[in-house]
Design a protein that fits this description.
alpha+beta, Alpha-Beta Plaits, about 190 residues, 9 strands, elongated, about 35% helix, five-stranded antiparallel β-sheet, about 35% strand, four-stranded antiparallel β-sheet
Length: about 190
């Protein structure tokens, strides 16, 4: 009896560790493009492991496709390791900036209350606009955006790509590098 495959799509977060090599970002995004999977967000930064960079990519797909994408990404020589995760396996944050109309804010005190309710802060105010900042999960940021938009005070809105760390007690990359180093040392002794 054949086992049924899960074909439901959901948002997966791909954590990819690599050496810092020019052109690798385009190679990674090409893996998604070839499989016709749209990237929802992308963040690249130095990781906590010296010499390694961390790519955080989110995309909607089914688990079968997430496995395929991960395997294709790991085939790149410069990629040290790649994994995919669901939201319940990660601690997640994003940051958003809102440019808001100062005259509308002055007329409607609910705007300031909403920002405070979402643990946001106002970081700039002048006669024309105010800038508010919020850090949190995607749904909270989009909820605040929807509420502010309905009050007709949003002049500009931008949010960062997702940043996250795993809920696992160990860093998979550190384990991998330790094993790789042990194998290298063993082969040098022989």
């Amino acid at each position: 009896m054949e086992q049924e495959q899960d074909t439901s799509t959901k948002l997966y977060t791909f954590l990819i560790y690599s050496e810092n090599v020019p052109g690798l970002l385009s190679q990674i995004t090409a893996v998604f493009t070839r499989r016709q999977v749209n990237i929802e967000s992308l963040n690249v930064c130095a990781s906590s492991t010296p010499g390694a960079h961390k790519y955080t990519v989110t995309a909607n797909c089914d688990e079968r496709m997430a496995r395929i994408l991960t395997a294709q990404i790991e085939k790149r020589i410069e990629v040290l390791q790649a994994h995919y995760y669901t939201d319940d396996q990660l601690f997640i944050n994003e940051t958003a900036l809102f440019k808001l109309s100062t005259p509308v804010m002055l007329k409607n005190p609910e705007v300031g209350r909403l920002i405070r309710f979402h643990n946001g802060s106002i970081i700039e105010v002048n006669n024309t606009y105010a800038v508010a900042e919020i850090t949190g999960i995607t749904n909270d940021i989009l909820s605040l955006f929807g509420a502010l938009k309905s009050m007709d005070c949003v002049l500009q809105f931008v949010r960062s790509g997702r940043i996250c760390i795993t809920k696992s007690r160990v860093e998979h990359l550190d384990e991998y590098l330790a094993v790789r180093e042990a194998k290298r040392n063993a082969s040098l002794k022989n």
